[in-house]
Write a structure and sequence with these properties.
It comes from Didymodactylos carnosus. Keywords: Metal-binding, Oxidoreductase, Signal. This protein has 507 residues and is mainly beta. It folds into three domains: 125 residues, Immunoglobulin-like (Sandwich); 181 residues, Cupredoxins -  blue copper proteins (Immunoglobulin-like), CATH 2.60.40; 160 residues, Cupredoxins -  blue copper proteins (Immunoglobulin-like, Sandwich). The protein is 5% helix and 37% strand. The protein contains four helices and 32 strands. Strands 9, 10, 12, 14, 15, 16 and 18 form a seven-stranded mixed beta sheet that branches. The chain has a six-stranded mixed beta sheet with strand order 11-20-19-13-17-21, with no helix packed on it. Strand 22 and strand 23 form a beta hairpin. The longest helix has 8 residues. The model has no long low-confidence stretch (mean pLDDT 92). Bound molecules: CU-O-CU linkage. CU-O-CU linkage binds next to strand 5 and strand 31.
């Protein structure tokens, strides 16, 4: 077991990832920021140095942070945001976790400006290891030409009418295509050798966009979702991936070909309130470095099997649904938490989002951890739900909104034991059969417009965990709540003294 030690200097610089020059956020003068590759059981020890003029933080998406709550990276919850010109040490074990993860700022809207990258935990005993020759990461991202803070102000103001900022383009591993008619465009090149199989790790690091990911002329066998190994029974032509989610797929290289193929990340225009929006986000699957640009074949949505969020819940009769290798879901729960997703007009013409009628606002000047440590009452706007150690929780989410919501829980993975559409009302407990046989376990579930999901998890990780929509605009609009998982154990683990004191700033 090793320790991955690094210093991450967060800075601003100018780049043109899609041909359009703008100021963006980099780590150690790299864009995309450095990828972290570690092995199962390794420790990660990263000092983040804030060279910006605004406070920052880094969250390690999907990592449980067992006993290391202060490394979860949520300002106002688990730490004070790192002030300008200061450092913060993140140190945590990867434990038994393996697979595809990522990291990103959890402060303000900084990850939209580029403060994010991949975190891969390799497993020397990966059950799929003998099935592929090489591997590669595809970090997908929507991309805006304006600064995220400017867009956030717009989104939270009257003039947006509640419509999220529409991205200008998208990036695959930091490369996008803008206005190719005017300037020659660059494409990310993914090499593959004739006759070999490659593992592609697909990560949607977007603020907003849902991508339909395809590789022309090739199918994808899905073997991992959010760090959960799958049985590989699902082979698809396209994957619909929402913000925060990850998949690994196996792609079999052709044994004979004389051309390259387009890899596409298509942003669903229906999700954008902007029907004419159709950026071409592409990379090249390149055979032995030969053959140049692929020919122009457009993927047709109706061709073949598209993996989407309805392949992960109670559709166990559907043979295309994703099935984990390990089947270990508890058959019963002992606590139910209901979460209603709605947006409302706050009367000033500003649309705010809420879970159960409360729009989340970060505490200022302190953290929830410090509030727990000193036994103070929780701020109402933090929408705190207390749960006991050892509880088996069912979260029933009803999405009353006409938009999609990728919902993410920190500190855990959950089984999606049911999901479905609710156009004619709410989730109905009497009618829904829970899948306690082979449900998928992941950390980010996508809720379709007007749909429900039931998420089961075991409260075995004392902490203060945020549960939020991973559309970053929606998080800013308050679509979050907090699970305080065993306050007593948190006090025992992290002390009852005022160790964290006051924050000089939290965003
Ligand atoms: Cu990637 Cu709080 O999330």
């Amino acid at each position: 077991k090793k320790t991955f030690t690094a210093e991450f200097r967060v800075q601003q610089f100018d780049r043109s990832p899609d041909g359009f020059k703008r100021s963006l956020l980099s780590i150690n003068n790299e864009f995309p920021a450095p990828i972290i590759n570690v092995c199962k059981g390794d420790t990660i020890n990263i000092t983040v140095v804030n060279m910006l003029h605004v406070p920052i933080s880094i969250h390690w998406h999907g990592i449980f942070q067992i006993g290391t709550l202060t490394s979860d990276g949520v300002p106002g919850v688990t730490q004070c945001a790192i002030p300008s010109n200061q450092k913060y040490h993140y140190k945590f074990q990867t434990g038994i976790q393996t697979g595809t993860y990522w990291y990103h700022s959890h402060a303000s809207v900084q990850y939209i400006d580029g403060l994010k990258s991949a975190l891969i935990i390799h497993d020397p005993k990966d059950p799929w290891k003998s099935h592929y020759d090489e591997e590669e990461i595809f970090m997908l991202s929507d991309w805006y030409h304006k600064q995220a803070l400017t867009l956030q102000k717009y989104y939270l103001s009257k003039s947006s009418d509640g419509n999220e900022p529409v991205p200008d383009t998208g990036l695959i591993n930091g490369i996008g295509q803008y206005n190719c008619a005017v300037k020659k465009c660059q494409y990310y090149n993914a090499p593959i050798k004739i006759g070999t199989t490659k593992r592609f790790r697909i990560i949607n690091t977007s603020a907003f966009a849902v991508f339909l990911f395809t590789i022309e002329g090739h199918t994808m066998k899905v073997i991992e979702a959010d760090g959960t190994n799958l049985n590989g029974k699902t082979t698809v032509n396209g994957i619909r991936i929402n913000a925060g989610q990850r998949y690994s797929v196996l792609v079999k290289g052709k044994t004979k070909t004389n051309q390259n193929y387009w890899i596409r990340a298509i942003i669903d225009p229906d999700t954008m309130d902007h029907a004419s929006f159709k950026p071409n986000v592409s990379a090249i699957l390149s055979y032995n470095g030969k053959y140049g640009l692929p020919s122009e074949v457009q993927f047709n949505k109706n061709d073949g099997i598209i993996l989407d969020s309805f392949h992960e819940g109670n559709n166990f009769l559907d043979q295309n649904s994703l099935q984990p290798m390990e089947l270990n879901v508890p058959k019963k729960s002992n606590k139910t938490v209901k979460v209603e997703i709605e947006f409302y007009d706050n009367k000033n013409g500003v649309n705010l989002a809420h879970f159960n009628n409360i729009s989340f606002v970060h505490v200022m000047g302190t953290t929830l951890l410090s509030i727990v440590q000193t036994n103070q009452p929780y701020p109402k706007s933090n929408n705190v739900i207390s749960i006991n150690y050892g509880d088996i929780i069912d979260i029933i989410i009803n999405n009353h909104d006409d938009g999609e919501h990728p919902i993410h829980l920190h500190g855990h993975k959950f089984w999606i034991i049911a999901n479905g559409n609710t156009h004619d009302g709410d989730f109905n407990e009497k009618k829904v059969v829970f899948n306690t046989r082979n449900p998928l376990k992941r950390d980010t579930v996508s809720l379709n417009p007007h749909s429900y999901a039931v998420l089961r998890f075991v409260a075995d990780n004392p902490g203060i965990w945020i549960f939020h929509c991973h559309i970053d605009w929606h998080l800013q609009a308050g679509l979050a709540l907090i699970f305080v998982e065993s306050a007593q154990r948190v006090q025992k683990l992290y002390g009852t003294t005022k160790s964290l004191n006051k924050c000089t700033s939290n965003n």
